[in-house]
Amino acid sequence: MTTLEDRKAAARKAAFARRKPAFETQAPGAAGKLSEVLAGYRGAPLSGFLPIRTEIDPVPAMAEASAHGPVGVPVIEAKGQPLKFARWEPDCTLVDGPFGAQIPEHQVYFEPEVLIVPLVAFSRDGGRLGYGGGFYDRTLELLRSRRPTLAIGFAFGAQEDVDLPLEETDQPLDLIVTEAEVITPAR
């Protein structure tokens, strides 16, 4: 019998296989649609991410947004805990953090209201499959319990999966932005 974890592992493997060629053949300006979306949230506390491996790169859009308000990146403090967000500037000094993601050398924490969320796979109805640690699910649940929090999934269109295995604890995305389109999930 195939378990949910087996289905998630298979979906991750397939998504990584689709993401790699999208990463290798991406055209310059992949973050253009993301910049357009973020223009509607000027000044709102925002978190992005510094890409690892073959993730799509949101840094150009984050740099543009940083001229209008605080921008941060996630910091993993411990397994099973929500993320914290450290203030990031385009020219700040970075150091290696957990899981190969870079973080600012000097961390000044804040709570974002808009999160650009990395992912392995997404569905058009707002489903997100991450790396399996549950960090963003825990974090979004916490932030959404305090105030409205917008989660924007940012990925290559090739990462779409029409049959994404999800569970109750998976937090939905409010928008999905790819290099080619902006998707508003129907709920």
Automatic annotation (TrEMBL):
Keywords: ATP-binding, Ligase, Magnesium, Metal-binding, Nucleotide-binding. Its EC number is 6.3.3.2. Its cofactor is Mg(2+). GO terms for biological process: folic acid-containing compound biosynthetic process; tetrahydrofolate interconversion. InterPro entries: FTHF_cligase, FTHF_cligase-like_sf, NagB/RpiA_transferase-like. It catalyses: (6S)-5-formyl-5,6,7,8-tetrahydrofolate + ATP = (6R)-5,10-methenyltetrahydrofolate + ADP + phosphate. Gene3D superfamilies: NagB/RpiA/CoA transferase-like. One of its GO terms (molecular function) is 5-formyltetrahydrofolate cyclo-ligase activity. It is an enzyme of class 6 (ligase). Pfam families: 5-FTHF_cyc-lig. PANTHER family: 5-FORMYLTETRAHYDROFOLATE CYCLO-LIGASE (PTHR23407:SF1), ATPASE INHIBITOR/5-FORMYLTETRAHYDROFOLATE CYCLO-LIGASE (PTHR23407). Belongs to the 5-formyltetrahydrofolate cyclo-ligase family. This is 5-formyltetrahydrofolate cyclo-ligase.
